[in-house]
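User: Is it possible to get a 3D structure for a protein together with its bound compound? The compound here is magnesium ion. I've pasted both below.
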Amino acid sequence: MNISFDLDSTLIPKGKEFETEKRNGIAKLLGIEEIRKGTAELISDLQGEGHKVHIYTTSFRTKGKIRWTLKYYGIKVNRIVNQTENQKVLKSRKINSSKFPPAFDFELHIDDLKGVGIESERFNFKAIIIEPIDKNWIEKIKKGIQKTFELRILKRLLKELWLQSDNCTEPIESMWFSIQEVAKSTGNTRKEIRKYLYLLVDNNYLELKSEEPLLFEFTEKGKKIKTDLEIEKIIKNVG
Ligand SMILES: [Mg+2]
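Assistant: Yes, that's possible. Here is the predicted structure of the complex:
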């Protein structure tokens, strides 16, 4: 998944709001900024799980300066979007939000500002809001990523099933083909996707109509699922 991090008060302190990694005197002289304790390990963990990590900030720091600071702590990120680029892109797309991660293909954004959380609901993007004083910030991020990841697979699977069932009106004939399609497009194994199929069956959203030939059908309960919020509930009710 493409995950973006805010900088100020999320990874870089504005004052003394969180503990920071060690930085030597030379680094200070070279303009290396302080960074939240645990950042390097968190980012490397996420990258190890196959996620791409990006920086998305509304600060005007240059990309070079940001890369320079991150490099000092052994952090390598994919893309950096600063306010210069952010303003340009959002203006050209006429988006009236301080941040809009989908404009940069970021699928989940991590930020300290409640305002960004409000924007995420209004503009329909995924965000995790972390308070600067939150000691369990890493755990909260990891849990949030897991949830978003699951939601993304389930959404993609449902979209495929809606298509194959002509919007819940016909039985689904090509379940294994659908699973393969979802696996391909989300970069997961078929085994992983099958778990979500069983989740839908076990919770009575989908039922096996016949084994020979293999046919599935949406139940009355399943036909009602339409919005992200309803899809989220499927996962919540299980977890
Ligand atoms: Mg911030």
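The chain has a mean pLDDT of 95. The radius of gyration is 21 Å.
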